[in-house]
Design a protein that fits this description.
Strand content of chain A: 25-35%
Order of helices and strands of chain A: HHEEEEEEEE
Radius of gyration of chain A: 22 Å
CATH class of one domain in chain A: Mainly Beta
Strand order of the largest sheet of chain A: 2-1-4-6
Radius of gyration of chain B: 16 Å
Structural class of chain A: alpha/beta
Shape of chain B: elongated
Number of domains of chain B: 1
Order of helices and strands of chain B: HHHHHHH
CATH class of chain B: Mainly Alpha
CATH topology of chain B: Ferritin
CATH architecture of one domain in chain A: Sandwich
Helix content of chain A: 10-25%
CATH superfamily of one domain in chain A: Cupredoxins -  blue copper proteins
CATH superfamily of chain B: Ferritin, core subunit, four-helix bundle
Number of strands of chain A: 8
Largest sheet of chain B: none
CATH topology of one domain in chain A: Immunoglobulin-like
Number of helices of chain B: 7
Shape of chain A: globular
Oligomer: heterodimer
CATH architecture of chain B: Up-down Bundle
Helix content of chain B: over 70%
Distance between the termini of chain B: 42 Å
Largest interface: A-B, 12 and 18 residues
Bound molecules: copper (II) ion
Strand content of chain B: under 5%
Largest sheet of chain A: 4 strands, mixed
Structural class of chain B: mainly alpha
Chain lengths: 121, 182
């Protein structure tokens, strides 16, 4: 009938152990973290003639993708199908930088037949 | 004459009545167009599709149709601004012409037909018309407008607009298929 009881003191000890093991979250993730990858690079995707060029981009964790709208109409780049990230509207001439954390297909939510893919390897 | 008749017949068979109107409108003036006339046709053709989008936004409740109409308004509206800015820069005054007039007449009839419809019947008619209209515009840009444009910047704008119209056609056909599957 009686469950395993943990005395408050033990709990405290356990908590402090975990704390030491993990470090403080603040130390681990400042806003301007440069990922541990030695050389994060930047990859350009041009949006022109109603296409993402290239339509598939292979990157490493921490790499930045820069989308530039070189077309005559507005576009965006939006994760598909969950819209986990989006550039918002990119007018002709606009650019957007983003560091994708995971592989995902993406599309232009304005022109839903425009498709691309990010592969993080 | 024979060519024109063949083209009209083919258009009517493939695309139905509204495309027949558009094919007729574009076919009439195919041989000779000046840059001011081409600029006027470009603005008119874009304005017609912005107007159709306006009707769709006021009438439809279908998510796909409303989204498509938003995109048409945005892209064709943006193209009008660019065409007008370019015409101004080049000192070209868009000039009314038989093809523009014919386009407007076709659009007036189609507008009347669309305004008489509601619900799913409207959605289908709007999308069918968008497919037919974009096919006709695509054909006109390729075969009549680009080949005859003298100014390289105006030609460049028409060439840049070509894939936009192609994408719109693909988008409209996607919705059309979705309706057909229902
Ligand atoms: Cu787009």
């Amino acid at each position: 009938m009686s469950p395993v009881t943990v005395k408050p003191l033990h709990l405290l000890a356990l908590a402090s152990l975990l704390f030491v093991a993990c470090g403080t979250p603040e130390e681990k993730a400042p806003a301007t973290t440069v990922p541990a990858k030695p050389v994060a690079k930047s990859v350009a995707v041009s949006i022109a003639q109603m296409k993402f060029q290239p339509d598939t981009v292979r990157i490493h964790p921490g790499d930045t993708i820069v989308w530039t709208n070189n077309d005559v109409v507005d576009h965006d780049a939006t994760a598909f199908p969950d819209s986990a990230w989006t550039s918002g509207t990119l007018h002709p001439g606009d650019s957007w930088r983003f560091v994708p954390q995971a592989s995902t297909p993406y599309f232009c939510s304005i022109h839903v037949v425009m498709k691309g893919a990010v592969i993080v390897e | 004459m024979k060519n024109k008749t063949t083209m009209l017949t083919r258009g009517a068979l493939l695309l139905g009545v509204s495309a027949f109107l558009y094919a007729g409108a574009f076919a009439q003036e195919a041989p000779k167009l000046t840059d001011p006339e081409i600029a006027h046709i470009a603005v008119t053709a874009n304005q017609i599709d912005v107007n159709y989008a306006g009707i769709a936004k006021a009438t439809s409740k279908n998510k796909d149709v409303l989204h498509f109409a938003e995109t048409m308004e945005r892209d064709h509206g943006g193209t009008i601004k660019q065409a007008e800015a370019l015409a101004k820069k080049l000192n070209v005054t868009p000039k009314d012409n038989a093809m523009s007039k014919s386009l407007m007449e076709g659009a007036a009839k189609e507008t009347k037909a669309l305004k008489a419809l509601k619900g799913a019947a409207f959605d289908k008619a709007y999308i069918d018309n968008e497919v037919a209209y974009h096919k006709a515009v695509l054909d006109a840009i390729k075969t009549a407008l680009i080949p005859q444009t003298q100014n390289s910047e105006l030609k460049g704008l028409l060439e840049a607009v070509l894939p936009v119209v192609e994408t719109h056609l693909g988008h409209a056909e996607m919705i059309q298929k979705k309706f057909a599957a229902k």
